[in-house]
Automatic annotation (TrEMBL):
<dbReference type="GO" id="GO:0000813">
    <property type="term" value="C:ESCRT I complex"/>
</dbReference>
<comment type="similarity">
    <text>Belongs to the VPS37 family.</text>
</comment>
<dbReference type="InterPro" id="IPR009851">
    <property type="entry name" value="Mod_r"/>
</dbReference>
<keyword id="KW-0653">Protein transport</keyword>
<keyword id="KW-0813">Transport</keyword>
<dbReference type="Pfam" id="PF07200">
    <property type="entry name" value="Mod_r"/>
</dbReference>
<protein>
    <recommendedName>
        <fullName>VPS37 C-terminal domain-containing protein</fullName>
    </recommendedName>
</protein>
<feature type="domain" description="VPS37 C-terminal">
    <location>
        <begin position="130"/>
        <end position="248"/>
    </location>
</feature>
<feature type="compositionally biased region" description="Polar residues">
    <location>
        <begin position="1"/>
        <end position="11"/>
    </location>
</feature>
<dbReference type="GO" id="GO:0006612">
    <property type="term" value="P:protein targeting to membrane"/>
</dbReference>
<keyword id="KW-0967">Endosome</keyword>
<feature type="region of interest" description="Disordered">
    <location>
        <begin position="1"/>
        <end position="35"/>
    </location>
</feature>
<dbReference type="GO" id="GO:0043162">
    <property type="term" value="P:ubiquitin-dependent protein catabolic process via the multivesicular body sorting pathway"/>
</dbReference>
<dbReference type="GO" id="GO:0006623">
    <property type="term" value="P:protein targeting to vacuole"/>
</dbReference>
Amino acid sequence: MPTAVRSTTPSGEERMSAMDTAVPLPGTSSGATAAAPVTLPDTPLAREFPHIASLPRSTLESLAANKDPQYYSALIHTEPQIAALLQQRSDLLKKVRELASRNEEQLRPPLEQTREETQRWFLQATEAEQVQWKEEERRLAEAHRRFAPPALLAQLQQSTAKIYEQSEDLANALVEGRTLPPSLLAAGRSLSSTSAPGSASSLERDAEDLTNADQIQTFTKAFLALRTAYHRRAMIEERWRRDTVRVD
């Protein structure tokens, strides 16, 4: 009895596409016509694999004696369940290829644009690291030096000397009978903790409106504020020099 089986190839897809190619099993003749259906015995082989159980005994014996994997593959692919699974696999592969092609058409342009933007930003970051970051480090080091303990001590010394000179100039102006400089009076009032807050320009305008009667009182307040600030800063400077002031 001739039995038509599907041929196999190394590729699973080509094997499924060539399933209709006739590959004769051992012990069968390709020129014979299909025999009438026969009643199979009630055996486990007939119940689970009726397609194989319906083969002639000679064909089964030839398959058992022949160790060629091609014939075993051809026999397995003639099983309807296997053929259905292979067909499902082929349909799934086709569907996956269609989805992949559609996704590539839709997603490739934005992905290419994102890759170009990422490359551009990466180049800018690399350039900034090589050029701009060195400049930022230099500025940071310069700013750190301004707030280092030696720099703070130098600023304290300068401000202390400036306040001392302002207080001396204010005292000399009073002794010599000159008009009290408004800028010095404003400096003294700005350092006084009891004076009302205000800008330096407003304090100078108030100092220009003073009369001779209250010059002594105004001088006393401004001079006291200047001298208090001077002695306070001089004391801090002295303690700093003796390492009794801690700057974190």
